[in-house]
Write a structure and sequence with these properties.
217 residues, alpha/beta, Rossmann fold, five-stranded parallel beta sheet, 9 helices, 52% helix
Amino acid sequence: MRNPFRTEAEAYRFLLLTIGGFAAIAIASILGGAWAGIPVTAVVTAGFVYLYFRRTDALPPVRTAPAAHAGEAERRILVVANETVGGQRLREELRKRAEGYDEQVLVVCPALNSPLRHWMSDEDGARAEAQSRLEASVAHLAAAGVNVRGEVGDSDPVQAIEDALRTFGADEVIISTHPEGQSNWLERGVVSAARARFAVPITHVVVDLAREREEVR
């Protein structure tokens, strides 16, 4: 879950602003009647929306380093992919990077959802679809001898990486996307944002599912 506050102090200041906002609405309603509280409510709501998006998008991100782990022969790889999670190109890249190591691979599949369903907290369908893609990919990798496990992550891929790094000390992160022009993540700058945010090597793997299907046929 995305947290718009980077420190407890910021959260505390936001709480005080919330209390002050509701106090202003109550005072306006008492002094001017119920109708007087409507414009005050609109102003306070607009202020909260502005602060939320300013905290999540406008401020520079904090560089987050993964936790250290012991063992030179051990290699931990975090993979973040959505529709391309089952792509052959990604599987080949993982097998190559894990070769010669006692590897641990964590595949995270963000539960992408429409904005409307997200705001309505209706994420069951998105999580079910992500889980289905994830299980198929993990099965393919496990059959190829890769020590892998998977989990469904936050709908924001950058937040999904941050959540995973809290418990999985990755040596590198692999972000898998569709080709340029077909990838919403590339349009949103997910790869560049992740490289700016996390102090861990990040590899971008492009998976062209249409070409892979043609090659199979």
